[in-house]
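With this grant's support, we have settled on a layout for protein records. One resulting record is reproduced below.
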Amino acid sequence: QLQLTESGGGLVQSGDSLRLSCAGSGTGSTFRNSVLGWFRQAPGKEREFVASISKFGGIVLYEPAVQGRFVISREDFKNTLYLQMNDLNPDDTAVYFCAARPVPATQVSLRDDDYINWGQGTQVTVSS
């Protein structure tokens, strides 16, 4: 089974940047054959979609609030997914999760119930 581990979170100030990483392990080719996504959950709120990337990285989808500030990318030879976050603001404070859709899926998705593998999350805190 595919295992996902996030890293790169931390405490930053408004306007700063962070790059999150998500390492895939525990399987052969599942990572590079999976549609991947980033979600986040702020305190007291439901988990929400951030970004999704297709197999081979040709198609990406962003939540409107992060469009133009965040960039999702993948390096399949490293089994790693990234989220470059720029111009952060306090509303971006949340636990960030990476996730993978089942291998047969081919489309990017903003629905969390379309994803079956999840990491433990990494905390991002943005101070004003």
Summary: Residues 42 and 94 are 4 Å apart (CA to CA). The radius of gyration is 14 Å. DSSP finds no helices and eleven strands in the chain. The longest strand covers residues 18-25.
